[in-house]
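Review session, final week

We close the course with one last complete record, chosen because it touches almost every idea we covered. It is Alpha-galactosidase, a protein from [Clostridium] leptum CAG:27 with 289 residues. Go through it on your own first, then we will talk.
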Amino acid sequence: MLTRNGAVITTAGRRFWDLRDPWVRDYLRERVIEFLKSYGFGYVKIDYNDTVGIGCDKAESLGEGLRQNMEASFEFFQEMQRCIPGLVIENCSSGGHRMEPKMLSATAMSSFSDAHECTAIPIIAANLHRVMQPRQSQIWAVIQQKDSLTRIAYSMSATLLGRCCLSGHVTELTAEQWKTIEDGIAFYKAAAPVIKAGRSYRFGPELLSYNEPEGWQGMLRVGNQGESLLVIHMFGGELPECVSLRLPKNTRTEVQSVYDACHSKYQISDGVFQWCPKETFSSIALLLA
């Protein structure tokens, strides 16, 4: 076990393996790698959300001990992938603590936040475009029975900013609610190539609150083949008559598909996109080619 100043590190009843110890690695090979191989698992989630603090013993400093143990953890992930070809590893972000380049490179995707049911979910998801590739960023649409069609589309549209995940009381929804979800999934599949590889642009005013956001946010994802995905979320506050944004030069403007539960008006003219939202906390998504 990891120790600090000779005492085993314990937090809320949890303790931590010292991955530098050959006995620990052999034990985990048997209990983790061989278990996954024996039962044919192709997906594993790393979800041990706690912190060892400032560091651990058995190095010239506590910080170096922590670095060595994290390096050993990273090497074990690599060993898992070598021993189980095609293994998909999900990295729970642990409040962002694991969202650093080396951990992202060792795993296929990361859960981006626990703010799954908050209206701030598209804001957080957009922020992560500065940190990681959207194709690695798991965004959960948590759907409840009480959700309006507009709210369902708002949540589903947020998943277009990353990797779509669905949760909530999905077995208790009406046929109309399910239709909105299915439309969102179909739109997502069409947009997947742009999400996978492209360049992101953010539009909209500065947002001063995550808990009670006001204004709007636009995210444009331009794919490597020239196709584009435009996702706009309207937040709270005064509902504007129209939202306008100028698309980057040479952005294609032919609308291939639209996802909008409100069936609101929009137009693209001379490189300017205009949207007339009908409600606060609504959304629109367009696939352009």
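Two points worth writing down before the exam:
The radius of gyration is 22 Å.
The first helix runs from residue 22 to 38.
Good luck, everyone.
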